[in-house]
Specification:
alpha+beta; 2 domains
Length: 135
């Protein structure tokens, strides 16, 4: 078995693949796909997809309750569209923030959030490193 970074020219094999969860293949430059192959058969895929996180909104307390959030959100949407962004995430840890994001038109998900901080892995010796079979 071989584990390697899948070159962009080969991404066509991922069209409709379960790893994408029904979403289209991301634009080149916005993702990396690592595959494990047994011969010419892909037996494992891990995608590293660059996503955008919308930082929390802040409005001066003296100005809350007006339309400033609407003005900000309108330009955020236009900016995302201009940049060709199809998806961005916003995190909410309080009900009032969840309610506010819903009023702006963001859809809640049933996803759990997990954090990777980059200290647990060693770099591969090459982009195509053969790994011993598990077990």
């Amino acid at each position: 078995m071989t584990t390697r970074i899948l070159p962009v020219e080969e991404w066509g094999v991922l069209e409709g693949h379960p790893v994408l969860g029904g979403y289209p293949v991301p634009a080149p430059g916005a993702a990396t796909f690592i595959v494990t192959e047994d011969g010419d058969r892909i037996v494992g895929v891990q995608g590293i997809v660059q996503v955008l996180h919308l930082e929390p909104i802040w409005i001066d307390p003296a100005y809350r309750g007006g339309r400033i959030g609407e003005y900000l959100w309108r330009l955020v949407r236009e900016t995302l569209a201009t940049r060709g962004v199809r998806m961005a995430f916003a995190f909410a840890n309080r009900d009032d923030i969840r309610d506010y994001l819903t009023r702006l038109g963001l859809a809640p998900t049933d996803l759990s959030t997990f954090l990777y901080e980059g200290s647990l892995c060693r770099p591969l010796s090459s982009p195509q490193e053969s790994l011993p079979p598990p077990g």
